Amino acid sequence: MFTPKAHKIDDTTYRITEYDRGHAINMYLLTGSEHALLIDTGLNLTNVPKAIRRITDLPLWVCNTHGHSEQILGNHWYPEVFFPEEDEDVFRKYMQENPSERNSPSGRFGNLIGAVYNPLQDLIRYNRPSEHEDLPEDGFFDLGGRIVGILKTPGHTHGSVSYLDEASGRLFCGDLVGEKEIRVDFEESSPLDVYETTVSLLLGLVEDSKISQLYPSHGNSPLPADILRTAQEVSSMVLKGDYKDSMKITYQGIEFRFRLTGND
Ligand SMILES: [Zn+2]
């Protein structure tokens, strides 16, 4: 299994990326003086623990932003994962997905890779399931000289959370927003008004200079915090307008998919 390359954001913050059909899936590693924190575990396409151990030997905490495949399928590598309990049903729905099927390699090297690693992947996944821990009740992780706050940010899924590195103002936001796409249209997404409330509350934190940049799960990272304004505008426009229950529109270069009635 390949070891992914870690991109250094600063001396204590790294982005680890897997590629799913050419699209980047981002995980983030934050270190303090006492603990390291991995935010999301990827699609289980690469050996992420090995990449982490090349960076730090601190005790590792692992957490998820939400229960979709791109965030959870690597959870089995770690004995315990902090998980937002409101998304447990989403986790159960997506944990059985096999990314090796949708990434079935083509070409002679691809076939070789597929033959070698697909069976191994399944063995690892199902032999070592991880336990879920509830997120800390005090609402933050203390990594030692570095506080990472936990914010409930429902919308994309009803249990989605984001993690705020308080000193730097970096918000690790899962699939709350993306550079090219915002999705609030899943069966497990919240009603659109809930998403609109989430982005409005986060915009308040941007205005208070508590959030400066967004670190999403997909594509380019970081994104400017202004993208929350775009998300808020398009949500409120849709909520006021005459739209069908579920559809897709493009607004300021972002494809926005929504359902007006969602799953609380
Ligand atoms: Zn997602």
CATH fold category name: Metallo-beta-lactamase, Chain A
User: Helix amount, in percent?
Assistant: 25-40%
Work out the strand percent. 25-35%
CATH architecture: 4-Layer Sandwich
**Termini separation:** 38 Å
Largest sheet, strands/sense/barrel = 6 strands, mixed
Name the CATH superfamily classification. Ribonuclease Z/Hydroxyacylglutathione hydrolase-like
Ligand species: zinc ion
Tell me the number of structural domains.
1
- Gyration radius, rounded: 18 Å
Shape: globular
Which class do the helix and strand fractions yield?
Answer: alpha/beta
Uncertain residue segments: 103-128
How many distinct beta strands?
16
CATH class: Alpha Beta
Structure description:
This protein has 264 residues and is of the alpha/beta class. The protein has one domain: 4-Layer Sandwich (Metallo-beta-lactamase, Chain A). It is built from 7 helices and 16 strands. The chain has helices at residues 48-53, 69-72, 88-94, 99-102, 107-127, 192-207, 227-240, and strands spanning 6-10, 13-20, 23-31, 36-39, 60-63, 80-83, 131-134, 140-142, 147-152, 161-165, 170-174, 181-184, 213-216, 223-224, 246-251, 254-259. Strands 8-9-10-11-13-14 form a 6-stranded mixed beta sheet, with no helix packed on it. The protein has a 5-stranded mixed beta sheet with strand order 1-2-3-4-5. A 3-stranded mixed beta sheet has the order 12-16-15. Residues 103-128 have low confidence and may be disordered. Bound molecules: zinc ion. Zinc ion binds next to loops.
